[in-house]
Amino acid sequence: MTRNLSLVIQILLLVFASQCSAKVAATLDDVTGTENLLKVTVPTVNEQFLRPAGAPRRLGIGTLPDIGSTVNDIRENIVLNENGGSVFDVTKHGAKADGETDDAQAFMTTWIAACRNTVGPAKFLIPQGTYLVGPVTFAGPCKSFPITLENQGTVKATTDISEYSSPEWFSIEDITGFILTGSGVFDGQGVTVWPYNDCKKNRFCQLLPISIKFSRLNHTIVDGLTSVNSMGFHTFVFYCYNFTATNMKIIAPHNSPNTDGMYLSTSKLVTITNSVIGTGDDCVSIGHSTENIVVTNVTCGPGHGLSVGSLGKYSKEKSVYNVLVKNCTIFNATNGARIKTWASRISGLASGIIFEDIVMYNVKNPIIIDQTYGTKKKKLQLILHAGFKLEDQRCSFQEHSWDINNERGSIVGV
């Protein structure tokens, strides 16, 4: 079976020519390490997402602008914070930590105090204990730089869906210099609401809350996050720049619906590394309008694999450029390396996609490329579209790097 898989991979390499692989891999390798990525900083979100007139259409990872060391400053300020910076303890602002009282208001009060702090960096501290917390929004801009959220407790979501006017549990937004750390746990308590997820049958379904949504953040470090049993996605990275997530543990049962580990959209310069993710959906899903994404040393399983897409479902979606998925292990999963695009009228590109050194065990579809995602085949002939395209000179599966241990596996192109 391994020989047959190798043959099919060679055929795929002929279809998805690897002209770009040496050049792109070299530039990506330059910044694969977390320390290197932390040395790179970027303009504000609004500045970066406006492409200057005459600028090249793509920004390769090897040509990122060198404009300072903001994230290194964040690292240095963590020490300053622990040596006397301002610490804002939720239990000092009314949190009961009894696992029964909703501490959402106390969390919000604590955040406002920390965000308004004018004396250097600030730490929002959740000490040991069990906290029941409804939906909260931690919004900036903040006067503190950086501002750290350190969770040492067990934070459990309230499970009355009517409380969630917006489909997020923790919404963290509009901040420059944000750090999420700590050995505590965010428990979405999804098991109580998963039976109400009927989105596969009901197009007007109510989306279940995302555990943590990061929106419009610049220079962010997520280090040591533990998230279990989210109602919907565990994490959603939206409109962020220079975002590093490392040492994460994200867990949900294999049959939990739509519990993606980390979903990215409209974000640039994102690194996900040294993490264990096992869910009922994609471990990592790289969505539309993303550029310069690196996923390394991630163990994925169970779940639906490491995915690019789905792309092309909605009219405002933009292309995906420069994605490196390297040194990852996938096991007990329905899919391994996956690219999925809708058969729609929306045009765009998925370009510079590299999966390299991926080890798979008991994976049903080690490589799956689906360009009619979400479409019944009998209806496909009725669709007139340009569609999202895989640019054949910029996508590759590195043949020599695949070690697929799955006698029942198959490679699927749809």
Automatic annotation (TrEMBL):
The active site is at residue 304. Keywords: Cell wall, Cell wall biogenesis/degradation, Glycosidase, Hydrolase, Secreted, Signal. It comes from the Eukaryota. InterPro entries: Glyco_hydro_28, PbH1, Pectin_lyas_fold, Pectin_lyase_fold/virulence. GO terms for molecular function: polygalacturonase activity. PROSITE patterns: POLYGALACTURONASE. SMART domains: PbH1. GO terms for biological process: carbohydrate metabolic process; cell wall organization. It is found in: Secreted, Cell wall. Residues 1-22 form the signal peptide. Belongs to the glycosyl hydrolase 28 family. PANTHER family: PTHR31375. This is Exopolygalacturonase-like.
